[in-house]
Design a protein that fits this description.
Blueprint: E1 3-9, E2 14-21, E3 26-34, E4 42-44, E5 51-56, E6 63-69, E7 75-82, E8 90-93, E9 98-103, E10 108-113, E11 128-130, E12 148-150, E13 153-158, E14 163-169, E15 176-183, E16 190-196, E17 199-204, E18 209-214, E19 225-230, E20 247-248, E21 261-264, E22 277-284, E23 287-295, E24 299-306, E25 317-324, E26 329-335, E27 340-347, E28 355-360
Antiparallel strand pairs: 1-2, 1-28, 2-3, 4-5, 5-6, 6-7, 8-9, 9-10, 10-11, 12-13, 13-14, 14-15, 16-17, 17-18, 18-19, 20-21, 21-22, 22-23, 24-25, 25-26, 26-27
Length: 361
Amino acid sequence: MVKFTILAGGYTSFIASYMFDSETNNLTYLNKYTTGDNPSWITSHPTNKSVLYAVNENVPAGALQSFTVGPEGALTLVDTISSGGSSPPYCGGLSTGQVAIVNYGSGTASVIPTTTDLLHFSTDDNTVVTFPVPTTGTQGMSEPHMTYQYYEELLIPDKGNDKIWRLSQNGSPGEFSVHGQIAQPIGSGPRHIQIYENQLYTIHELASTLTLQDFPTYPNFSTPLISNVSTIPPHPPAGSIFAAAEVLIPLPTAEFPKPYIYTSNRNIGVQDPRGDTIAIFEKVNNQLVLRNQVYTGLNQIRGMMHGQQAGEGGDAYIVAAGFAGTAGVKVYKRTEGGANLEEVAVNTELPTRTSFVWLKQ
């Protein structure tokens, strides 16, 4: 069995650290590390787990921060730079040594170069990409929510425009522009995406749906939906309002050979006493099939993360928390080959958290 450090962001002025012991199934709150306000999304650099990035999801001016990660997740702040807009909900380190960040409050995105240590941000070439005001849909403004690197492209789901923008670097680091788009159902509100075996899985916040389509090669901009399914649990309470938030696809392993898809159902209306669910899907004959709705006791699951990012031993686990309520942080073990989840650990010392990074102790 393995011990893991779990870092957790939230709408506070700190990032918290936990220790999860997979032998005893204990989740222990370790410490908190001061940041800028509202580090709601945190992420490790894709090739260097000793580097952590965090947004400051602030209005009217957001920011991006970098940290070194020490033993048991101890964080040291290194650098802070403007996000180039308002309310950044997401950032992602790129394999090129740049960091992409989106601003849903201002409908913009930036790609910020770093120095060779991946920790210091460059202020020279930070092009701000402004997405158009939508002419269809229900939002009335662009609301980019995620960045996703796929080979040389940067993909950005835009909830307001019902599109996934395709960006590429067109000059020096930091200089990016839109070269295409992947249309999504009008009014669906694409929020987060995953790509597996060249197929695009999209979680739609406004429709609370999960869709599947072949990823279109450039310069083809769109492909038809192959499958489109609801994530909402059956028989929700009257007054429920669902806004699906996250989609995860852990890579297959010997213990978990099927690539199940995990989505979070965020109920922002009248709560079910059993809490929000994590819906588990499987692709069968190119169609998405619901395998389970796991009730969590959590209120408004915005972020969750599988432990596979920590390496060997982590693929069995998913951590989740609510944006609201007092249920704290919970760790789930994947069972039935990944088709189900069992709650194995909980810590309520902090009532809410919104994003996670797994590290091996």
